[in-house]
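dude i think i finally got it to work??
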Amino acid sequence: MSQRVLWRLLGAFISVPALLSAGTAIAGTAIAAPASAVPAAVADPVYGCPAQGTTRLPYPDDAHKVVNCTNGVATITACPNSRYWNPRLQICGDLSAVQPYETRTATGTARLNLVPLQVLGLNARLTWQDGRPLGGATITFTTTRGSTLCTAHTDGNGYAACDSAPGVTAPVNTLLNGFEAIYKGVPTLRASQGHGNVTL
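look at this
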C-alpha cells in the first residue's frame, strides 16, 4: 500500500470525531450538538415576587404574616407570638414600632348589562409604597351606596377584576353612578379605595 493511501485513510479517521462534535450532517442525518439553554425564571404571579433573588413582602390581608420570596417562589410564614411583620425594618415586632405604608387603589371602567342586570368587568389596581404592585390583596367592589357587587384578589401586578352575579337588585341609576373598589388595609398597610365608572 502506498504512502499516499495511508495518509488518506488516516485523515478520514481523524475527521469523523471532529464532524460529530460539530453537529455536522453525515449521510443525510444531522447530529445535534448538546443543548445548553436554561429555562427563563418566572416571577410569582400572585404576590409579585421577583424572578431572581430573595426578598420579603408584606402579606396584604394579615399583618402577622410575611411573603418570603426566593427566585420567584413565594412562601407564607407567620410572625411568632402574634407579632406584626414590619415592612420598613424587615422584622417581626410590636405594633407600636410599625409605621404603616400608604396604599393606592386605581380603577378603570366597568360595563352594565341590562338583561340580566349585571355589572361586568369591575377592575382595580392596588399599589403600595413607591408604586410597586401589591399582590394577593382582597379587593371588594361595591355600589356607591355600599352594596357588595363582588370580591377579587390582586395578582402579581396588583390587578383585580370580577363580574357581579346576574340579577343585581340595585336600581339601574345607582349602578350607573359607578362603583367603589375598596382595600380594607391592615395595621402595616393603610386602607384605600377608588371610584370607577360604569357605562352601558
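Residues 68 and 75 are 5 Å apart (CA to CA).
im so relieved honestly
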